[in-house]
Specification:
- The structure is a single chain.
- The chain contains 7 helices and 6 strands, in the order βαβαβαβαααββα.
- β1, α1 and β2 form a beta-alpha-beta unit.
Length: 196
Amino acid sequence: MAAQRPIHTILVPGWLDNVRTLSRLRTFLEVKGHKAIICSPQPSDGSAPIQLLAQQLADFVAGGFADDEPVNLFGFSMGGLIGRMFLQEMEGWRRVRKFVTVATPHRGTLTARLATHQGAMQMRPDSEFIAGLNRDLSALERVQFTSIWSPFDLTIVPATSSVLPAGRARRIWSPAHGIMMYDPNVMRVIAQVLAE
């Protein structure tokens, strides 16, 4: 019998981020035995609608993996919303096994009220985009969804906006939003969730 191919985890960075943001996490996961690859939709400065960034993710998956090949998906901050758009609106749930987010404003963030670009404004708590994503969470119930968040996150306000009534939430005591992808404790939890 042929050995089963390992499932790749696609890592999606967030607002103002790029491949470099998740390079340390990718290395950490690979040391732990996971196959990880980074997809960095651009521009990540909030000027592009999240739907456009999600289409880049969908194209990345379609171009890099066989139609019947399952994947895991990870999103940091806005990257989690990009992942949700792919899962919920582009039928990504059909091929994603595990979906993990860290510090994602699933219910929006008050800090986005300061934004003037379309993509960033979509992250406001009262935006049509956030309301649309949260209207039907059934796609998240079809995958193993975990949201990891920190009460000390001052970018996602309130920090509990990372928690949804779907899947499960893992609280972790990481000191700030910007360093969560460099925090060994956060990376250990991500690897643990992917290994479960």
